[in-house]
Amino acid sequence: MNNVxxxxxxxxxxxxxxxxxxxxxxxxxxxxxxxQPAGHLDPDESLQQAVVRETLEETAHDFAPTAxxxxxxxxxVSSRTGQEVTYLRFAFAGELGTRHERPLDHGILRxxxxxxxxxxxxxxxxxxxLVLQCVEDYLRxxxxxxxxxxxxxxxxxxxxx
Length: 161
What we know:
single chain, Nucleoside Triphosphate Pyrophosphohydrolase, 3 helices, 8 strands, globular
């Protein structure tokens, strides 16, 4: 049995336009929740590739990451099952691009734009406490260059032998 603890690695896109933030409303095991376009890092992709893919799947928009807003560690305990999962989230700021005619990912009900004040007023609707934390870090101007994130070619499927 493997006893090595491993957090679930996720990515999130913090997208702001005219003081509003792009969010998704999604079905979860705890009900309908708000989140940034976000999801899990898949095998054979970089963190930047993951956030581009997740944003496209959940919003039908292209996304170009421009900076790292932060890295976040949090624990989630399911209210239904009591199962614990620790998440390591990488949140990216960036530019929203072209909208494509395609269905949104399974479980995503819609996209919506919300102000910081409106988001802060409904923490019970957030997928996790990281949703508001990422927006607040973004508003504080927290940014790190993407060059801090290095992906060795062996981690990306096309470079494997």
